[in-house]
Structures are given as structure tokens and as C-alpha cells.
Amino acid sequence: MLKSPYSGGHLEVIVGPMFSGKSEELIRRVTRALIARQRIAVFKPALDDRYHAAHVASHAGRTIEALAVPDVAAIHAHLSGQGELLSAAPEGLDVIGIDEAQFFGPELVPLVLDLADAGVRVILGGLDLDFRAEPFGLMPELLARAESVDKLTAICTVCGAPATRTQRLIGGHPARFDDPVVLVGAQESYEARCRVHHEVER
Ligand code: ADP
User: Fold this and answer.
1) What is the CATH number of the domain that holds 69?
2) Index of the ligand 1 atom closest to the CA of residue 17
3) How high is the pLDDT of residue 188?
């Protein structure tokens, strides 16, 4: 049975700003694979340093089960059978999904390439750009190496045009360029914006 347009393992990357439907699309692809009884493992970055059962959730409310992991080494450990919450054996794994891929370190790249080389369908979702509209961490490398790239857009909250960027607001005002990419404990919020209406304080 044809599982995908590709004959073997491969890398699919889904990018775009916040609210563009990356998680929705990852959930859609994983759900179809589940219906086809394929063996699937889904990961997302944990905010703390522990493994735990979690969900990938879209802003519209759909969810699928996932394992939250502190780092790439934890994904590796899980797949090689050393993880605390081992459920899927790595041999015979058909599909691996990873959401919020931008938060992992560059060591995710060789891991997913090895999996694709070994015949696994790898589906990654993540932000291509940070709040400053600069390329986000390891994402350019993943985009370059992927067989398939889908760059989704949201709707600009100012004008309704296709939004390609994520606006960070601190207390209702545009964040500063030199703010850290990952903010901890700040009163921040995010909106989808187009190029014209995306603002960064310099
Ligand atoms: P992402 O993973 O890219 O952040 P999600 O899949 O979690 O996106 O959420 C997409 C959903 O977000 C849309 O289906 C819609 O319900 C909601 N949404 C909220 N704000 C916007 C916006 N400005 N543009 C488009 N969708 C939005």
C-alpha cells in the first residue's frame, strides 16, 4: 500500500507563524497515519526537564497524544528503548511527529536525518521565524534538508492579509529586538501579523 508520495523514509517540515495551523496540520497527518494503523511516536519539547505524557494541541482545540521531552537526547533514548515511558519500539516505527521543533538544539538534525535514512516518515512542525522575524535556530537547516516543506500563513490581526510573522507584545507594546527569543515569566502575548504590520522596537 502506498503510504505517502515518497517511496521510503523522508522529512516533511511544516512552518509558519503562530496561529498558522502548523499543529492542526501535524495532527491531521498523524491522525491519518493512526487510522492506517501505522506505528507512530509524537514528541514535543517539555518546559521542564522531565519526560511526561502530554498532548500536541492546536489553538482550535484538537489534540493528539505526545511525549514531552527535555531535549534531543531524550528522544534518542526513547527511540532506542531506554526511555522511561517506552511504548513504541524503534524498529518498525513508521512515523515520527515532532511539534515546536524550533525549541530543540541542532542535534535534532542528524537524528531526524538518520530516521529518514532508516525508512521513517518524519513530520516536523515549527516556527520558521522568531518574534523578530529572524530565522529560528535549527529550522533553516531542517527546511533545506526536507523533501517536503509547507509554509503556512495565518491571518494578520491588523489588516486581514496573510500573516507570515509572529508579533510579540509585552504589556500591549511591540517587544524589543534585543529581548531574549524565549521569555520566561513575562507578561507577553502573541499575534499573527503580515510583513507590513509586524513591529519590533529597536
Ligand atoms: P500553530 O500551530 O501554527 O500555532 P494551530 O494549529 O495551533 O497553529 O492553530 C490554528 C488555529 O488558530 C486556527 O485554525 C484558528 O482557529 C486559530 N487562530 C487564532 N488566531 C488566528 C489568526 N490570526 N489567523 C488564523 N488562525 C487563527
Assistant:
1) 3.40.50.300
2) 3
3) 87
